[in-house]
Amino acid sequence: MSDDSDRSGGRAAAPVFAPDPVSLAHLELILSGAYPLSGFMTREEAASVAKHGRLPDGTAWPVPVTLPVPDELADAERLVLTDPEGAPLAELAVSERWWSGPDPAEGAAGPAGHGHRLAGEVRFLQPAVYGALRPLRLAPGEVRAQRELAGDAEIPVLAVVADRPLHHRELHQVRAAAAELAGSGRAEILVIVDVPVESAGIAPVVLAAEPLLPAPVRFVAATLPRGSAEGAGALPPDRADLLRAHVAHAYGATLVLVAGASGGASGETLSGGPVPVVRPAEWAYDTEAGQWRRAEEVAPAHAAPLPDAAEVEELLARGRPLPSWFTPARVAAELARLRPPRTERGLTVFFTGLSGSGKSTIARGVAEGIRRSGRTLSLLDGDVVRRLLSAGLTFSRADRDLNIRRIGYVAAEITRHGGVAVCAPIAPYAATRAEVRAMVEETGDFFLVHVATPLEVCEARDRKGLYAKARAGEIPEFTGISDPYEEPADADLVVTTEDRTVEESVAEVLAALRAGGWLPADPS
Ligand SMILES: Nc1ncnc2c1ncn2[C@@H]1O[C@H](COP(=O)(O)OS(=O)(=O)O)[C@@H](OP(=O)(O)O)[C@H]1O
Ligand SMILES: Nc1ncnc2c1ncn2[C@@H]1O[C@H](COP(=O)(O)OP(=O)(O)O)[C@@H](O)[C@H]1O
User: Fold this and answer.
1) Residue 449 CA: which ligand is closest?
2) How confident is the model at residue 10 (pLDDT cuts 50, 70, 90)?
3) N or C end of the chain, less CB within 10 A?
């Protein structure tokens, strides 16, 4: 520690930082006592956990719990950690600053993320109030106290970590596992609803199953981190399950059931955690008997094929009912509320393409067609955006990104309220487009149209004379000439314009929206 930090004393001097969603999820679990950890890990701890699933002292722990920070905070002695809105949650006393990045000595198993990390103990400052489902976000200590009060402290607890709906199949799995655990006595079912911090997500759908489970049953909400800063993408399934076991253990679980688990063999027990994690036995709907049974008791010819998550999503998107043998009515009703049919769902139609490719022209026609179908619509026209929302921004990469993020933010809000946003910026960078897609898809649907007019055609059109100027060097950083355009690999529709009329291009987009279910099949 430097002298500076000793002298700074009060909290006001510590810089303030809002951690990324993964670190924030870790922080909440540390603060609630759901993790047996007191802070963020050092380099040695994170590397040991990543490689061996153990801390250097031998304690089993499945995932690195680290705090990535931006360059400007890399030297901090202390840090006030806040929620995304800036309200302080905890103070970090930094014990080690480290760099996570490729290190040849670590080999492939080494930390995969790049960047600065801060390690150290965290001290609770004030309870979190942001985000959704606060009343359900009980700390393990509170749950244990409730159990004591109800006189249920001694009965075994089957924990179910649910990040997806409990359909009939999962409910049978849970009831069977609870009955087995109870034996001749009683067992509590504790459903840990795993939802993102910001939104209630699937929670109402999971909660709808309450009357279908035998008492005593209890629901709590928690956010289990989806990935790790120290590894690319999602956590490996076993590590994620072990993390669930640790959290469930803190809540008093005797056994953890991963309902509807996709990875691993059914009936298998994962050891190495503080409590066993069981991947439940498979159940099937017997079409001949008209009832659910353990899969091994059902003749394969009579086992109804289960719709997978994508098929369920498509049925909901089309406003069709889920089969009643598959989903209990009350669960289906909540699902339909959460995922209304596409004709009622908010939508962002996002055009991308070179200057002069035809984005504005097609977007105008599409907007008119959507309006005629009766939907509420906002056209975020490129020029208007640049004049108002993004006034003063240049065409540097940073400013283009800011421009696109602003458009994305507004589009996501329109989408959240069930409207349609039609946007038509160049949006040359794939990463920024992906960010916007992710932002919008949290609140509704996103449809990316690549107006793939070749540069030569755009340049020949040169409606505004900009290409000529760009070629003459009078406009720097001009997309396609002196600045990049990254072709989308994730377009939902690619349109060409050099070989068809404006009307045909507009009709093509409207037809795709109709085919996808966003517009009524029969245009009025
Ligand atoms: N350097 C440079 N590069 C590209 N385009 C330029 C540039 N300078 C001005 N213009 C004019 O600005 C319009 C593009 O603005 P966007 O907001 O859509 O661009 S971006 O998405 O932020 O990259 C674009 O309009 P459209 O032709 O409608 O695409 C141009 O007319
Ligand atoms: N099939 C088509 N779709 C869209 N625009 C077309 C088509 N065929 C020719 N054009 C012409 O191309 C130009 C595209 O300009 P604009 O819509 O302003 O492009 P952008 O918004 O991508 O800069 C217009 O003059 C338009 O009339």
Assistant:
1) 2
2) very low
3) C
- pLDDT (0 to 100) of residue 8: 44
Residue-level pLDDT at 286: 98
> What beta strand segments (E) does 224-333 contain?
227-228, 231-234, 255-257, 269-270, 277-278, 283-286, 291-294
Q: Where are the domains positioned within the chain?
A: 13-124, 134-284, 347-515
Q: What is the mean pLDDT of residues 55-77?
A: 95
Query: Which two three-digit tokens encode residue 210?
Result: 């309450």
Among protein residues, the one with the nearest Cα to ligand 1's atom 30 is 355
pLDDT, tens digit, for every residue of 142-194? 999 999 999 999 999 999 999 999 999 999 999 999 999 999 999 999 999 99
Mean pLDDT of 505-519: 97
Measure 500 CA to ligand 1 centroid, in angstroms: 24
**What percent of the chain shows pLDDT beyond 70?**
93
Which residue bears the tokens 């040359």? 428
Name the closest-CA residue to atom 24, ligand 1.
355
Distance of CA 503 from the midpoint of ligand 1 (Å): 24
pLDDT averaged over the chain?
91
Q: From CA 260, how far away is CA 202, in angstroms rounded?
A: 14
Regarding beta strands 157-162 and 255-257, do their DSSP bridges make them parallel or antiparallel, or are they unpaired? parallel
Pocket probe for ligand 2: among 351, 355, 357, 361, the residue whose CB has the most ligand atoms within 8 Å is: 361
Q: Looking at this predicted complex, what is its ipTM?
A: 0.98
Tens of pLDDT, residue by residue over 353-371, are: 999 999 999 999 999 999 9
CA distance 278 to 257: 5
User: Containing H/E element for 29?
Assistant: helix 21-32
Residue identifier of the C-alpha nearest atom 27 of ligand 1: 355
Same fold, 134-284 and 347-515: yes
CATH architecture of 347-515: 3-Layer(aba) Sandwich (3.40)
Between the CA of 516 and the centroid of ligand 1 the distance, in Å, is 30
Establish whether 357 is an annotated binding residue: yes
Give 451-501 pLDDT, tens digit per residue: 999 999 999 999 899 999 999 999 999 999 999 999 999 999 999 999 999
Which residue stretches of 129-167 are H helix?
140-149
Which ligand is closest to the CA of 395, given by its number? 1
Fold of 13-124: Sulfate adenylyltransferase (3.10.400)
Q: Which CATH number fits domain 134-284: 3.40.50.2300, 3.40.50.880, 2.40.160.20, 3.40.50.620?
A: 3.40.50.620
Distance 363 CA to ligand 2 centre (A): 10
Task: Give the residue, by CA position, lying nearest to ligand 2 atom 11.
Answer: 358
Ligand 2 centre distance from Cα of residue 407 (Å): 21
Per-residue pLDDT at 4: 44
Q: Is 353 annotated as a binding residue?
A: yes
The ligand minimizing its distance to the Cα of 406 is: 1
